[in-house]
Structures
1.
Amino acid sequence: MNLLLNTIEAMKNGGGDLTVASDVRDGQLHLAVSDTGIGLPDASPDEIFTPWFTTNSEGGGMGLAISRSIVESHGGRLWAVGKAERGATLNFTLPESATHLTTAV
């Protein structure tokens, strides 16, 4: 949910396209959320995952840091890739075994 909200926020002033794609490869679920928003910091795209980093005047800068922590705690990986033309893609993978929910009855 946080990835979707971030991509929507990145496009709020100029509109754009939001794309969500998923697939399973080599026992890994891969999800990609792409936008045509403001893009990533030029110096270090990974900076967006640093606590307190934000480009949003209303944001606290914790959402992506927490999202990465959650994904990594389940054996996955969360990263961002800038797009050449405009925008970014936020990707995460999870082991297929971590994607099954179990409920107690």
2.
Amino acid sequence: MALKVLQINTFYQFGSTGRIVRDLKILCEQQGIEAYAAFGPEIDNGEERILRLQSIPRRKLNILRTRLFGCHGFYNEAETRRLIKWIEEIRPDVIHLHNIHNHFVHVGKLFEYIKGHNIPVIWTLHDCWPFTGHCAYFDYAHCEKWKVGCHQCPSLREYPPTWFFDRTDKNYELKKKTFTGVKNLMLVTPSRWLAVLTRESFLKDYPVEVINNGVDTNVFRPTENNVKNSLGICGKKMLLAMATMFDRRKGTEYLLQLPKLLNDNEVLVLVGLGEDQKKLFAHKRCIGIGRTNSVAELAGYYSAADVFINPTLEDNFPTTNIESLACGTPVVTFRTGGSPESVDDSVGCVVEQGDLQAMLQSARKIMVRGKDYYSTNCVENARRLYNKDIQYMKYIELYKNAKS
């Protein structure tokens, strides 16, 4: 009988984690595994063996409930009952959890069911939310309360934002009670950085394995294109950044400052902006590009750039870094979380967090040397270390071991 695996995540095919889930589902099917996926508000694309749990209006309601009451992750009872009913129908051998926050499932009800039925679980932690009383990241706030018990949270207005009540002490204890005591649970982190933190948290009694994120190196690869020509910047140096998540923790304040520091032969190209956000970057040395779900289009931008910059302030193991490397473009990033783990001197540069001048100087050093100086190493590193087919086969082995 074929192995059955159910993945659960906020998204299914969009965003970095959504693409991971879909890629894993496809790989499972290629390996003869019966693969299923449940997700939140994303539009159902009509594939077999997927379940959309939440409507957009329902999602907005639960966002409001988090804003008002701060008990994030413990709403969505109706959606979770639907999910549990589906689990009972398909009877998976392994459940693979990804992001189970972000307003789409009641984690208490889900784990109560998992514990009661002793289902083997693989849980990929894409951020720190599972072991804090509120936040997904705490680097920027320099907070270590999560090690002993959250209270008086300095990040209530950060994701998932709440307006009035600090419930972090109760949330911390509730999560600790909910997420511990699972008989067969393996944790996976995409970065060594997050693995270290996880082993210091109340999840420390579970085994933790590091599996880096992967990318499709058949799509993300160096390509000849006319991106610079179409943008009207032929003959200029192109600094590329992604702005699909437009918030402080992704370094928006530094991206806003950067165009003012560029020379006339340098242009910052930002991909992923909404129409209102484009107005914020109205500068002669900056070009704003709208959001795109086309990975081929993204690969074109990466390939055209002379350097990719990632001023993230809080991150796990950003896929954007390895997408850029796979396209032969060197990376400059802040020393943040797991972001430096994919970057060494042969493929780019790591600078101290918040030092925009050092980031720009490093980018210019790379552009003076020339992209060709780095490209071969960039592509080789990506194909050797971050090819999704290699990385995600490690999950296939975990599934098989979990069942046995």
3.
Amino acid sequence: MADAADEIAKGNFNTVVNYSADDSIGLLGQSLIKMSNELDQNFKDINRQKLELEDYSKNLEKKVEQRTADLVKANEEINRSYQKVLELIKEKNEFLGIAAHDLKNPLASIKGFTNILLEDPELPAEMREDFLKDIMGASNRMFDIVTNLLDVNAIEEGKVKIKIESTSLELIINQIVHSNNELASKKEIKIFLQVDESNIYVKVDKNITLQIIDNLVSNAIKFSPPGENVYISYRDNIDNNSVFVYVKDEGPGFTEEDKKKYLENLHGYQQSLLQEKTLQD
């Protein structure tokens, strides 16, 4: 019995007690065997639970790692979305600034032509009618600008509605020259239109193209000293199916920062045209 108890104490739970007499020693042997079996089962349960705990710990580590990776990915996505929002806000603010600037020119034209009509009641009927047409044209331009300005969804999505149509470039340029003559005359600035070909048609958004060129012309007048000249010219570039429009003044010129902003705005306009063309195709 002592040897059997010693083996059980060492962890040998398969120990056999070779004593079958039905007496107190036999009962003791049976108790030792029962205790050995229970200890064996308990240790097996402990080992099983230990393995389960180790497996759970490994799975937990994997889940934590996966969750951490998901959180990092989500954080990166949030940062990208935040940067996109900042870009859209910047684009919207720039668009609002451009729209506000664009509204000044037709407003100035309307004000100038209206003053002429009010100050000169003896104005010939034909000239009065021309001024009224100019006022109507400037009003229509303002309406188009405000319409785009109020299209909040288009602004926030970085999209502006563009209507591509075949338009006479001469008509656009003449309209710009006519609307800026009053501003130029106040500074004794002469606008010269220099063209080799007059009958050139372009596929553009008329209003946006008019705004772009009008901005250049009005700025050329604004920043030119009194008594200087402003030159507008355009020519057909048959090689790459495009048209070049030039606005030249005798003022200080663009700063490097102004050039950068202008090229960025021009690039954005070109991208919008490409997107619109893709949708139409």
